[in-house]
Amino acid sequence: MIPFSTRLSRYLALQMLAGLALSFAVIATIILLVDFVEQTRAIGTRVDVPATQLFLLTLMRAPLLIEQTLPFIFLFGVLTALFRLNRRSELIVMRASGYSAWRIVAPAVWIALLGGILGATVLNPIGSALNARYEAREASLTRTRSQAVQSNPIWLRELTADGYVIIAASNVEGDASAISQPRFLYYRLEGAGTPVFDRRIDAERAVLRGGFWGLENAVESAPGQEPEQLAALSLPTGIERQALFERSRSPRTIAFWDLPGVIVAARDAGLTTHRFELRWHSLLSLPLTLIAVSLLAAAATLRLYRLGGAASFALAGGGAGFLVYFVQELLASFGSSASLPPITAAWAAPAITAILALAYLASTEDG
Questions:
Q1: Is 70 exposed, middle or buried (0-12, 13-18, 19+ CB in 10 A)?
Q2: How many angstroms separate the CA atoms of 155 and 172, rounded?
Q3: Which of 10, 189, 222, 293 could bridge to 199 as Cys pair (CB 3.0-4.6 Å)?
Q4: Contact of 167 with 184, CB cutoff 8 Å
């Protein structure tokens, strides 16, 4: 059947889009307000930044945050549209004229499929690009008096025999085997655990080799002493390439189209890619996730209003949506720790939800 080929299907699609627009407006407003307050607390209290700059930072973060809430936007959007049709008795007229529940649900399913595809292939890359600009802008606003200007700063902290060392670098190389323009800041603990600056080592590059950092063109500085030029230097470390790789690249900040290349490069470098594969499959399964929550909303609201209990069913549908989200996040945590295959962790919850919603619709429609 061709989608939206009849006037009634187009009318239902417009009602679904109106419900989605209302749901999007409410959820996006909440996201913007909460994140603006967070930006005010995190940045506005540290540096003197105009409210317009803080709001601009909030807008840069908004696409990725909205992407994460797409299932709720579709859940409450379809719930709103169908509940409104039900309350106005339009569903009763449709059902009485022989219009099946499957034809009523079809526009929501097609819109969810299209929304999932656009969310993964368009919204996610835009959100990732804007998030990178947000991080660069935030770093420039909150930059300390350090001489180094870092485009994608990496910060690590490691315990030493008498204190700890803070490692700052401009970026991590693609195979997570080296860092560029590193600074090693050594602190020793004295008295009641008070940190005291001990020395600083700057280098052009540091290569991670079997429990040691190999520094190139290093310069060591200490309080009250002249800087000492060192051609090469080895520093012991407990940091591994896997930890360095995961610290430098967050799966949520990598665009949909870039994830396959990152996964292949990491595998070639002998690194574990569970978290990145999970993110990839989560984006691939986004259309199914939106279809599943749309079916769930339909199952909760297609009960005829004249039979009573429609509002209770709608509330139950909303609660079921939150339960699905909780289960999906739980499976994702198992997938991140390699306890579950990424495919299972990403696809299981939406697939089971869709099957159960279809089963319920079939039982109510066909008996």
A1: buried
A2: 10
A3: 222
A4: yes
DSSP lists the bridge partners of residue 164 as 159, 187
pLDDT at 299: 86
CA neighbours closer than 13 Å in the CB half-sphere of residue 141: 21
Q: How far apart are CA 221 and CA 214, in angstroms?
A: 18
Here the tokens at position 25 are 């407006």
Beta-carbon contacts of 49 under 8 Å, excluding residues fewer than 6 positions away, are 43, 141
Query: How many whole angstroms separate alpha carbon 59 and alpha carbon 33?
Result: 11
Return all residues near 251 (Cβ < 8 A) that are at least 6 apart.
259, 275, 276, 278, 279
297-340 residue pLDDT tens: 988 887 654 455 556 766 777 788 888 889 998 999 898 888 89
**What pLDDT sits at residue 72?**
95
Q: Where are the domains of the chain?
A: 7-142+270-366, 154-240
165 closest CA partner among 139, 184, 149: 184
Give the residue from 272, 287, 279, 288 showing the smallest Cα distance to 338.
272
Residue 145 has pLDDT above 50, yes or no: no
pLDDT higher than 90, residue 287: yes
What φ, ψ does residue 39 adopt, rounded to 5°? -65, -40
Q: How many CA atoms lie within 13 A of 275 on its CB side?
A: 17
State the number of CA atoms in the 13 A half-sphere of 297 facing the CB: 31
Residue 139 CA: distances (Å) to CA of 8, 57, 152, 293, 317: 52, 12, 9, 38, 42
Q: pLDDT at position 309, please?
A: 56
Segment 146-199, tens digit of pLDDT? 333 344 567 788 888 888 999 888 888 766 788 888 999 999 998 777 889 999
Count of beta carbons in the 10 Å neighbourhood of residue 327? 15
Upper half-sphere CA count for residue 224 (Cβ side, 13 Å)? 2
Supply 340's token pair: 């579950």
